[in-house]
Design goal:
Number of helices: 4
Shape: globular
CATH superfamily: Glutaredoxin
Protein name: Glutathione peroxidase
CATH topology: Glutaredoxin
CATH class: Alpha Beta
Pfam family, one: GSHPx
Family: Belongs to the glutathione peroxidase family.
Radius of gyration: 14 Å
Largest sheet: 4 strands, mixed
Structural class: alpha+beta
Order of helices and strands: EHEHHEEH
Number of domains: 1
Number of strands: 4
GO molecular function, one term: peroxidase activity
Keywords: Oxidoreductase, Peroxidase
Mean pLDDT: 97
CATH architecture: 3-Layer(aba) Sandwich
Strand order of the largest sheet: 2-1-3-4
């Protein structure tokens, strides 16, 4: 079973077929609207614009598990992201990324270690996973790694379809 087999919905409550991203690179990010890291939306959108035509899709996954920093409804999240940060990339429903209620998507992601060797639970908002076409999770980056970071950009570029 791969991430493409996972059932998840978008912010409008409609099924979001992850299988539709099978031939693209993904940058999956657990996001929050009221976090000190929230301005990363600007950089994430910039990555989507720069690499989207080459096969990248940024996928935002709202989560309210860290300091209650994503308390809004799906409609409020969508409005905030589009009007404040100009977000055009797809966003999923709000999910849990840790604990007993961890969404199955994150069950598949958290086994991958970041550069410091950390695997397992997500530590904060804006943790990032690079997924190559076909579903291999090729990199994990902590919340402090900005979208402009050279290492993150290199991981994204290396995951882009040929």
């Amino acid at each position: 079973m791969t991430i493409y087999d996972v059932a998840i919905h978008d912010l409008q409550g409609k099924p979001l077929a992850l299988d539709g991203f099978r031939d693209r690179a993904l940058l999956i990010v657990n996001v929050a609207s009221r976090c000190g890291q929230t301005p990363q939306y600007f950089g994430l959108e910039a990555l989507q614009k720069e690499f989207g035509e080459r096969g990248l899709t940024v996928l935002g996954v709202p989560c309210n598990q860290f300091g209650g920093q994503e308390p809004g409804s799906s409609e409020e999240i969508a409005e905030f992201c589009s009007t404040t940060y100009g977000v055009t990339f797809p966003m999923t429903e709000k999910v849990d990324v840790n604990g007993e209620g961890r969404h199955p998507l994150y069950d598949r992601l958290v086994g991958v270690a970041d550069a410091t060797g950390h695997s397992g639970d997500i530590r904060w908002n804006f943790e990032k996973f690079v997924v190559a076409p076909g579903g291999e999770i090729t990199a994990r980056f902590g919340h402090r790694v900005q979208p402009e970071d050279e290492g993150l950009r290199a991981a994204v570029e290396s995951a882009l379809p040929a």
